[in-house]
Amino acid sequence: MQVHTGGMIQGFNRSSGEIVRTIRATLTAVRFIKKNKERTLVLMGKELGIKDREVSSMVHDDAIRLYSDTGMPAEASIAEEIGVAKEIIGISRDVSPSEVADWSFVQTALRGLK
After folding, report:
1. Which helix H or strand E contains 1, and what residues bound it?
2. Are 18 and 106 a contacting pair, CB within 8 Å?
3. CB-based contacts of 75: which residues, under 8 Å, 6+ apart?
4. Is the pTM of this model over 0.70?
């Protein structure tokens, strides 16, 4: 099987600024959600229709544990996902995280956050 990535890479290069801005906006939103629980619960009530305060608080508390402050998963999580994928695909060789994902966009976005 042949995979052509030239067009994808050109697209990433052209839109890298947009990708970084999107990641930065997402990280800003995650920080807001973590630091402003009460305001987030009000927004959840309006936007998601969760009227029960106790339920929205539990949803909030569960959700914030899923969000990374850096936008990058823990190394152990990456290794686990690679292991699962290797098993499904039937690959026995070692696969490094750099072969799977390029975190440079996230690192650039982090440098731009205050």
Report:
1. none
2. no
3. 97
4. no
pLDDT band, very low/low/confident/very high, at 4 (cuts 50, 70, 90): very low
Give residue limits of the domains in the chain: 17-112
Summarize pLDDT for 81-100 with one digit per residue, the tens.
999 999 999 999 999 998 98
- pLDDT tens per residue, range 22-59: 999 999 999 999 999 999 999 999 999 998 999 999 99
Q: Please give the full DSSP string across 40-73, using - where no structure is assigned.
A: HHHHHHHHH----HHHHHHHHHHHHTTS-SSSS-
Measured CA to CA, the distance from residue 114 to residue 111 in angstroms comes to 8
Structure-block tokens of residue 71: 């936008």
The string of DSSP letters for 1-44 reads: -----HHHHHHHHHHHHHHHHHHHHHHHHHHHHHH-HHHHHHHH
